Fold:
Amino acid sequence: MKKNRIVIIVWLIFEKFGLILLSACSFLAFAFYLTPAQLGLGTLTIALCEMVSAFYSSTLENPLVKRNCESKSELSGVFWIGGTIAGSTMVLIAFIFCFFNSSSSVWQMLLFSSISVVVSIQSRPFIAILRHKRQFKNLALRTLWGKLIGALAGILSAIYGAGEWALIIQLTIMNSIAYIILMFSDASFIKSKPAIADFYSITIEGLAIGFRKLLDGLFGRLLILVLSFTASPTLVGYYAFGRRLVNLPLQAVITAMASYSLPVFSKRVTQPKVLSHLFIELTFCVFLILFPAFVIMGLFGKEIITDVFGEKWKDSVLFFSLVSIIAGLRILEVFSQSLQAAFGKSSIGIKLDILRVCVSLILAFFASEFYGLVGIAAVIFFDTVFIILIRFISVNQLLKFKYTKFWLEVLTVVVSTLSNAYFVNYIIQTLKPDIFMLIGIGCFCVVLQILVYFLVFGNWFNRLKLVLFDKH
Structure:
């Protein structure tokens, strides 16, 4: 059991961070071979595709996992009916774009990328089955092969002058290859007759999850739109650059933890005391490790950004450091949505989420105009705090636990980590180190963080081992 759990976690990490590496490679190639306008058109198309795909995927996949993937009619319904609805949605969006601007290539790319959306949704039953069985190795290999072949196709397309279509080619081939690999697993449910009633039941149960997933990405996408009205294109570029560098590892962590935790939580919904303890311990231990990791990323990343990407990105350094710290705070809510999904209560907090998005966008409109990127970082911090409060208010309606002890420990992690970071940053600013000395200071920073943890938490390593190896 212990060995199996470690293998599962390793494959989850391998999959998600392997995707980060491949995404980084393709992004650099696109930045080199595409013009800003081409990159913008492709990014806009992909953003719309991902919004549709994320909404339907979250709506349809999580209820299947929660129901243990036992009904073939439910699996078949998601495959056939879900795929049809998702494809029709993309065609509708494409024709809307064509109506307003038929000369743009966006509507054509949207039509083509409907293939990507359809195969992504039709993959949900296969992925739900593998998640339920905890076969994360198979999921990781399928995703990485798709990403690898898709990235190569996209890069070659960019080299040979495909322009903005290179991004769409990458996305479509990536999802299609992953889909084909899944088809070699148990696909017997495809032959079952889809039941509209079962599909409706799945959709109703997962609708709140889908809306929440849509809301999670909506703020970031609409924030770019707000910046385009209130700030210069250069400022928008700095924002997109800094946010992307942070979001790649953050989203990898969030999706990996969500994939692991939902089936674990679903099996314990009838044991509230056990689940309450598990939720708190998992949240705290993951935060204990990953919050310092993001702070360190922001601390040392700002020292090498201009060396790697050039002086033109110098003005994004402070924003990148601030957003890295804020991203570390997001770890506190990494398990909350999985917990709500396990109880079938994902609708809790949706109204507050809608209010959060609206208020944050209004604040961003004024903050960006008067305070630039520092104002946007402040708004992102406000949005993150709002998210964490909403998640724990929602969780409190499902489980009861001792808030005071938990938040005191969280505060201890934050204060000790930021104090350590301030001290190390002082050393960096004083010594002005070269790359080799910077590596040495980085190692010192990690060792110092570990020693500080032993000072404030005692033998915290045993607590981590207990969470990792205890039965759950």
